Amino acid sequence: MTDNFETEKDRASAWFRELRDQIVASFETLEQDHDQGPLSDTVPGVFEVTETQRSSDDGSDAGGGLMSVMRGGRVFEKVGVNISTVYGTLGERAQMAMAARKGIPGMKDDPRFWASGISLVAHMQNPHAPAVHMNTRMFWTPHAWWFGGGSDLNPCIEYAEDTAHFHATQKQHLDRHGPAYYPKLKDWADEYFYIPHRYRARGVGGIFMDDHCTGDWAADFALTQDIGRAFLPAFVPLVQKRRVQDWSEADKDAQLVHRGLYAEYNLVYDRGTKFGLETGHDANAVLMSLPPLAKWV
Questions:
Q1: Is the pLDDT assigned to residue 1 strictly greater than 50?
Q2: Which of 78, 83, 79, 56 minimizes the C-alpha distance to 67?
């Protein structure tokens, strides 16, 4: 059993907001600084910020968050950086899914929950610049608590040095918590971000964990924070390098086809998408991860 974890909840929620603010500022700087290469003569993108609210079945407050989306930028074709803190009671289907995955006793008798996190997906204008996904989150019930999250790179045109940088940066941050974490979370990402019906991964991997609870909340939170801290130094240098490259119609076509894989995965397999829709969160925020344009051939 857990206590109500009010202090821990507040700390986690505040951290996700802090990380969100850092990422939004960094991405808008990338837009402002793009002064050479394709689309550098267009207007830089800015985030549109919308508050999201969630209500319980009885109409009472059930939390919400911020949805920050940039569309049609010079660097980012579409990027969303969402945070939310939601609470209430899990519906029957969500209870069954949680019990089946985690085997938590007592969930039916007391289905209260609290969840907070940040979720990010970026789809780029330049096909040479990789798409990327990142999220970190904390989940609490009266019966258990845990952390989850990670980030993975999704280029349509792969560069070995970009993949190496992305993974090396994540390893550097995870190694602070012990040498076993990076290989474990890398393997977990390779398994989780696999598309069974396509017999392939959706990208070049990264790190991922779910249901992470060692019993030491402070240590698990610190690990989760470093997963978040690794994101900008892992990703931003790749964008700075690739946003100036020229692209062809064939490059753009390859990007649109690759985005189809991303859409298929998020709609069919992604747990976060399923949980958000099951618990009544704002559908636009939940489906923010979908690309603005995609193609199937």
A1: no
A2: 83
Contact 102, 239 (CB under 8 A): no
CA distances from 118 to 58, 65, 85, 179, 293 (A): 27, 10, 9, 26, 24
* E strand map for 155-216: 194-195, 200-201, 205-212
**What is the average per-residue pLDDT within 272-296?**
79
Q: Is 167 a catalytic residue?
A: no
How large is the average pLDDT for residues 189-196?
A: 95
Residue 105 phi, psi (nearest 5): -75, 150
Catalytic hit among 133, 143, 258, 281: 133
**Which residue do the tokens 């690794």 mark?**
230
149 beta partners: 136, 209
DSSP 245: S
Q: Are 106 and 142 in contact (CB under 8 A)?
A: yes
pTM of the model: 0.92
User: Kind of pairing, strands 76-89 and 61-71?
Assistant: antiparallel
Q: Provide the percentage of residues in the chain whose pLDDT is more than 90.
A: 75
The average confidence (pLDDT) of the chain is: 91
